[in-house]
């Protein structure tokens, strides 16, 4: 039987990485994004639409087994834009999942949901309380809270991935602690899709970094086995990390790109 996975935000950095890394026999990837995705492969379907369009999202959820929800504004922006895309868009995803009986949703949350947590409290557990650093970070707390609501109301399994610095290589000294490699991002998503009955839970999206600020225990509990370490790139970055998890996001102007 074919497993159908809806991947929103499929044209982004992480979505593009997952598109290739998640391909396998017996799985159909339904790729959803406002951007052009190119011609679909033999085990792909492409939908060019926005998560702000509830009808398009609901239609995309038909026949789906699980959702990996990456779509959204990926940095600070004006409040109204953040609210419309990240919060209302996520509500549309959950409503589509509810209407079509989809039992598992993975959320791309962020370390910026807890950006004002202090790194000296390391290793921070994945369920450290909300302390958002921007409207962007606040939107991720709203997404996580929505996940809790749909779990308790409708029994959905929801895994909120508090993603660190997901890039091909660590771009700065802070990321020696916060880096999530693209390969480990795929490993984390696969673990979150396959772990039995996760309920609602938060997991740090981070690689096996020597300088990690965050606990990997919650990831290990669902079968996540990261293989990459930012320390391999330590001689390529410089600077000093801040004491706050959110780094420069804790001081940038609210609502400005």
From TrEMBL:
<dbReference type="InterPro" id="IPR001509">
    <property type="entry name" value="Epimerase_deHydtase"/>
</dbReference>
<feature type="domain" description="NAD-dependent epimerase/dehydratase">
    <location>
        <begin position="5"/>
        <end position="164"/>
    </location>
</feature>
<dbReference type="InterPro" id="IPR036291">
    <property type="entry name" value="NAD(P)-bd_dom_sf"/>
</dbReference>
<protein>
    <submittedName>
        <fullName>NAD(P)-dependent oxidoreductase</fullName>
    </submittedName>
</protein>
<comment type="similarity">
    <text>Belongs to the NAD(P)-dependent epimerase/dehydratase family.</text>
</comment>
<dbReference type="Pfam" id="PF01370">
    <property type="entry name" value="Epimerase"/>
</dbReference>
<keyword id="KW-0560">Oxidoreductase</keyword>
<dbReference type="GO" id="GO:0016491">
    <property type="term" value="F:oxidoreductase activity"/>
</dbReference>
<keyword id="KW-0520">NAD</keyword>
